[in-house]
Structure formats: C-alpha cells, structure tokens
Amino acid sequence: MRIVIIGAGQVGSFLARELSNDHDVVVIENNKERSDKIRDSLDVLSIYGEGDNPEILKQAGLDESQVLLAVSGDDRTNILSTLYANNLNLNNIICRIRNSTYMEYPGLLNNENISLISPSEIISEKLSILISAPFAWKAETFADGKVELFKLRVEEGTEIVDKKLKDLDPASSWIFVGIARGGSIQIPSGETVIRAGDYVYALGDPAVLERLKKLFNLKFEKIKSAIIIGGGRLGRRVAKTFIDLDISVKLIENNPERAELIAEEIPEITVFKGDATDADTLKEAGVESADYLAALTGDDEENVLSALLAKNLGVKKSTVLYTNPDYIDVLEAIGVDRALSVRLAVANEILSMLHIGGVANIALVEEGRGEVLEFDLAETSHIIGKKLMDVHMPHESIVGVCLRNDEIIIPRGDFIPQVNDRLIIFTLPTAVKKVEKIIG
Length: 440
Fold this sequence. Notes:
alpha/beta, Rossmann fold, Alpha-Beta Plaits, 6-stranded parallel sheet, 13 helices, globular
C-alpha cells in the first residue's frame, strides 16, 4: 500500500517509522532539515516542499496512493491537501485539525472518505479516562470501553512483591499482559517474579477492580478539584471537559491577555495570571489542597517542572503532557505521576483508523515498545475452532481478553475462539506480523 504523509513533525515522523516497514511511504515536509533527517533515518521517499502544492503532491504520486495522512502543524495545509486528495477519489484520507473552529463547518470536509482528528479532543478524552482511574499511571480503553488497560506501579510492601505470577490466584476478570522494567517491556509467564518498582500492564474488566485493589493496594479517590496549567486550545478544551465531570477547575496562564479571554470564555473556572513554575503562583491557585494537576503547555520542561513543584507543595496527583519521546524513562525516574504523549495519542488514533492487517484497533505503549491489538474474528480466521495452546502464538505476545457477546473472558490454553469474538492481544513489535498472520 502506498501512503503519503504530509508533515514530518513528531506525529508524522512517528507514523512514517511505524508504517514504512510494510508499506511504501512518501513524506512531504517544508522544513529542509526535517526532510533530510527523515530521508537519512527511514526507508521512505522524503520530498522537500509544501504539502498543499499540487505539483509536490503529483511528485509524491498521490494519484497512485491509497492513503493520505495530512498531519502537519498547519491546518490550512492539511485541509487543502485533503481536498486535493478527495478530488482524486482517494478513499482513505485522515486530516489533523488543531483549530476547532474548522470543525464548525462540517460541509467543508463532509465526505465519507475523509476522517478528521483533533489533537485537543484526543488528549482531553485520554485525560478523562485517567481521571476516572486516578490510581493508574496510564489507562486505555478497548472494545468500545468495555475493557481497560491499566499501567500500575508496584510499590514496596504490597502483596504482589517478590511473588511469581503462577502463585497468585488465577484472575477471572484481569490478566497481567506486560511488565515494564529497566526501560523495556517483557511478556510475563507464570514464572515471572514481580519486583518493587515494576510497572505492570493489567488488562480486563473495569467494573471488577477488587482483586487489583488488593494486590496493588490501590486507593480509589474521586477527583473533585483540578488545576490546569496552560490556557491554549488544549487547556481550554480540558477545562470544559473537567467541568462536565463536575470537577472544580482553576487554570494558570502566563499570558495576561489570554488569561482575560479565558475568564470570559469559561466563566465557570477561576483563572490565575502567572508562571506555574513559581511556587507563589501555585500556592495562590490552592495547589496544596488540589486533587489533580494537569500540565498542558507546549513546553515539556515547563510541564515537568511545574508538576514536580506542585507535587512537592502537596497536590495529590498530576499528569504531564510531553512531546519529546526521550522523556518517557526520565519522567518515571524523577517521580512524575503520569505522562501523556501527544504524538503517541494522536498516532494511536490514526493507526486505529487505518485498520491495517485486519486490526480493528491499536494502541502503542511506552513509545512503541509494546502494542495492543484488537481483532474481530471472521469465519476466515485461521484460529477459529482451535485451542489457543495449538495455535502457537509467539512468545513475545499474549492473548489477554476475549469479548464474546459482551462477556469478558480471560482465555487460557484450552480456550477455543469463535466467529465474531473480539480478541485483545498484547505484543512486542517484533511479533506483530506473526500475530497478524496467525489470526489471519
């Protein structure tokens, strides 16, 4: 399949890396340094030029392509390239829109072949999921919200420490599908020993949490008050989402003019003008008694510093937004509660919409060190009617959950998949192709 990507920023370059192993990828980038970098580092055709220029799009072979991913940082470029691709009758076009104003004119891009994505909407939804599970370092939903994946930290002194998985009671509603340790992910077996400081990926039924609560000594406290740092598009969107969740919201914005506009736009919140990396500003906003802090500026360093300072001043939980992929291990090491990757969140949404390899949904974790794949089993699937123990799934993967007629099943070796089952599989990148081939 030939895929044209407009923009080689954080999202575009990540998508190019993920897709170029199995597809012909062309990347159009108007920054010469970025264009050269992606040409030298990936097996793609990199074209230096404007993504909304018809001549450049012709040079990229858009008329012979099956997919356009317009994910540059400029909305107008994305929209114009989308309209051009639609005129060529491409049937799979994904357009990234940052300014929500464009969403108010659905007729502009109203076509069944065009899918619009908004980074602020995606991040806001991710934060809502995290708010509903404040005990988790990360949370993702699958099977239309019926199944959740939690990333849980193993604290010293909890029941699970220094135990083999096979010595724990078999779970009927949850399964541990991945262990993050020392900057890498491993697929656990019954012999795997859980250590303090590990991060465990637990997949299962969010309505049944008692077993997890006991093993990890989880605290369930409803979020009633939150402080948001940053009043950009994302900060304002999240503020409105939190209000809908009956959360009392305070927002810190360092631009005085923007702060005044936000106060007028969202009268339900209290807006503070100031620098969130200054302790006095955080104290004025009441950080000592706040349940939650979301650092959502466009500056990774400011987000990290403000979250660490807020934690030192007494905030209960915090989430840091970041764009630099190198931050993932650093954030855990320095004690940041939760981190949310912009590029990973947006890339996950796009990859899920592509439905490549028969995958109904996909979520990359730990900057792509692990993947969660959803498959809807058709009659043609190779594993229908076979016991899982006879299918010989790769050791770098695990079938975590089966959703059958709204019933959540934790499959064992003697489990036999049926038509219309939805399987959720946790896998390392090295095993993805093998998994897709086995599932068929």
